Amino acid sequence: xxxxxxxxQAVLIKRYKRxxxxxxxxxxxxxxxHCPNTGSMKNCQEPGSxxxxxxxxxxxxxxxxxxxxxxxxxxxxVGINTNLANKLVFExxxxxxxxxLKRYSKIRTEVAYGEQRSRIDFFLNSPDDDQSEDCxxxxxxxxxxxxxxxxxxxxxxxxxxxxxxxxxMHMRDQGHRAVLLFCVQHSGIDQVAPADDIDxxxxxxxxxxxxxxxxxxxxxVKFDIGNSSIELTQxxxxxx
Length: 240
What we know:
alpha+beta; Trna Endonuclease, Chain: A, domain 1; 2 domains; 3 helices; 15 strands
């Protein structure tokens, strides 16, 4: 995925009020930018870290610049913009880059479904193929690494995430295909696991979902800072 604006480098001063971050530009000026991540951003907001942001150039926006990527441990790149996860997956689905989901000809987004008035990220089907199951795909962004290549989700307790697992199980019980897809925006992660120490209930529900037949996949992005692009490229193992 080509970002609309080029990535520009700066240094993080601090993130605050969830949606804001102060950064220092190469010329020494300090500006406030938008932080498109409502989560805890555990391990991804260390002051003094190198970051990359984009500038919309829109004077009508109070904060025209948006934080996109941070460097951690002086070597790994982490995408903190959770809004990009669905866009990356959508592009990969269109390009048939997710091998397990190639056979569907129709992709719809934000479709109402389930017992709890939810909306699925992607509804896949092939209307002309009687043999193809309808497929419900929920996407979760992974940005928390805990060493030795292990990534975990979630980075804080997520009642919404628990609800989504319950909905996927319900759809599976109704005879549909149900998929949870982890979009890993962290260059140092080689496998994904539930964050049981952070949200034990999510871990329990994830394992229960697998028992119900919900498929759990993980795909990792590749960052190309110089070309201001991000692409979902590599499948990773999910360890339960």
